[in-house]
Amino acid sequence: MLKILVAIKRVIDPYVKIRVKPDGTGVDTQQVKMVINPFDEIAIEEALRLKEKGKANEVVIVSIGDNTCQETLRAGLALGADRAIHIATEQRTILTPLNIAKILKKIVEKEQPDLCILGKQSIDGDNNQTGQMLAGLLNIGQGTFISSLEILDDKSIKINREVDGGTETLQLSLPAVITTDLRLNQPRYATLPNIMKAKQKPLEAIALDTLNLTLQSSLTVLKTEAPVIREGGEMVESVADLVDKLRNKEKVL
Question: Is residue 242 part of a domain?
Answer without folding.
Answer: no
